[in-house]
Amino acid sequence: MDRRRSDWFEDTDPQAFEVYTQMHRDMSLDQKLNRIFELVEFSEGLVRDRILREHPKASDREVFLRVASTRLDRQSMIDAYGWDPDLHP
Question: Which of 31, 43, 72, 87 is the most exposed place for a label (fewest CB within 10 A)?
């Protein structure tokens, strides 16, 4: 078995892993792209939830900026939004 694959799912039965990978092989490009968008949306939702727990009084704009700052470097945040994440811990 390819060692890279077993690292991903060390606790997964090899047959189950093969079914999982075959599902992905069988997906069309549109299905794969849609799945990527779903996963990004899910991931951002987790980040947004964490930010709302840590900053319960944050405005919608502040939540947006804090989420964006998890994807962009400090200088890009300043250039794009005029918001310095280092000044808003």
Answer: 87
